[in-house]
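Can you give me the bound-state structure? Components:
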Amino acid sequence: DAKTTQPTSMDCAEGRAANLPCNHSTISGNEYVYWYRQIHSQGPQYIIHGLKNNETNEMASLIITEDRKSSTLILPHATLRDTAVYYCIVTRGYGNEKLTFGTGTRLTIIP
Amino acid sequence: GAVVSQHPSWVICKSGTSVKIECRSLDFQATTMFWYRQFPKQSLMLMATSNEGSKATYEQGVEKDKFLINHASLTLSTLTVTSAHPEDSSFYICSARRTENEKLFFGSGTQLSVL
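Here's the bound-state model for the whole set.
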């Protein structure tokens, strides 16, 4: 799996959009960008994933640059419950492919 | 949607005893499950890949005789921490895919404390 680089921590005001960046400059053509988050003392929760097009679901939007070397996860209206560690993972994402977690970004939503 | 259930949520045991953690896929069959371990303030570290009907594949540095994995059915994988010691105290998490091309679903985790 390609390695990813994320900021260690970020703060965001409640109600604002939280933009979490991720660099994955060595991504391969058949690798997806996945985002998971982990709220304290819980298992990781899937957020969104994409290959090269931007994606949006009920939780977030994923913006992938044209060269696919970086991406941004956007939480449009952050709430206190969005405080968590967010992991950006690059993987082919199928079969018995395992997920390798980096250190992630600790996002704190401030009231 | 698909759910992965993990039991127990937390367990406290004495040093030297063994502890079994169960991971079940509730509404799908999982030929492959993954076991992770997470120490406080650290990221998830993959321990092993559990394969239904065959031996588990362990990551480098993980003792297979200490962390016994059994995947006897398509909906159940178990991790047994044998002769547990305080340094085995950690958060253990399992995960599984519903289909080959789908995302991983994670269990809620098991907090193990060894006294």
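A couple of observations. Chain B is about 0% helix and 50% strand. Chain B has a mean pLDDT of 92.
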